[in-house]
Amino acid sequence: MLPFIILILLAKLVVHSQGWEFITLSSLFTALISANIFLIGFLISGVLVDYKEAEKIPGDMATSLETLADECRILLESKQADSAKKCLTHVMYLSNLILDWFHKKERSATIMAELTKLNSYFLLFENLTQANFIVRMKQEQSSLRRLVNRANTIRETSFNRSGYTIAEIISFFLIVGLVLTRLDPFYENVFFVTFVSFILIYMIMLIKDLDNPFEHYIQNKETADEASLKPLLDLKNRLEY
């Protein structure tokens, strides 16, 4: 934010020193600011829906993977089946693969292909366990597919590109208008220009950041606003242990 605010303040100082402030503050101008804030509020309310859903996805993935692992462990302990051991290894591999996928080190098609490979283990389990256990594992497999598809959709698509564009255009012209607005005393003018510009720019940047809560693949990016992958990391440690 700091470079934008400094640039706007410098522009305001130059405009004031040159006497180029020809716009007078009116109720119409304040109405435009209110309308833009309303539009930004609409955008952020839509983005937050996907963001709140995205926060649950890593945890739900970890739950499904651990359920699959538990079923494999049960078969391994009760039947000492080699297929159960191999399936458990495959589930561990899947957990690592999904973590790499969030960092864009693996493709979505690879995840789907590895999930499909679970079918071969389910076939081997038919003679080892009851049908309802296999049905439960199939349900977790289906849940993982749904979660991967949903996470990929949230990551690869934008909520409302046209809405972002119009909000950016309106904000740009409002900030330019504030820079060219004449308001006495001057220090009040500087305060309102800085404050309103900060709010408009910050909210647009926040919306864009929240629109993709799976930006873990961007290097040197702070992840405070990203969906936490801790459930998957904890699962990885538990499975390896």
Features of the shown structure:
mainly alpha; 241 residues
Question: How does the SSE layout of this entry go?
Answer:
Elements: H1 2-18, E1 23-24, H2 27-79, H3 82-102, H4 108-116, H5 118-125, H6 131-156, H7 161-179, E2 181-182, H8 186-211, H9 230-240
Parallel strand pairs: 1-2
Helix pairs in contact: 1-8, 2-3, 2-6, 2-7, 2-8, 2-9, 3-4, 3-5, 3-9, 4-6, 5-6, 7-8
Quick structural summary:
This protein has 241 residues and is mainly alpha-helical. Helices cover 79% and strands 2% of the residues. Helix 2 (27-79) runs parallel beside helix 9 (230-240) and helix 7 (161-179) packs antiparallel against helix 8.
Strand percentage, roughly? Answer: under 5%
**How many structurally independent domains?**
2
| Tally of alpha and pi helices | 9
- Principal-axis shape equals rod-shaped
Rg on CA atoms, Å: 26 Å
SSE sequence, one letter per element = HEHHHHHHEHH
Q: Give me the secondary-structure category.
A: mainly alpha
Poorly predicted sequence stretches spanning 5 or more consecutive residues: none
What separation lies between the terminal Cα atoms?
44 Å
Integer average pLDDT = 89
Q: Strand order, biggest sheet?
A: 1-2
Helix % is over 70%
Number of E-state strands: 2
Biggest sheet details? 2 strands, parallel
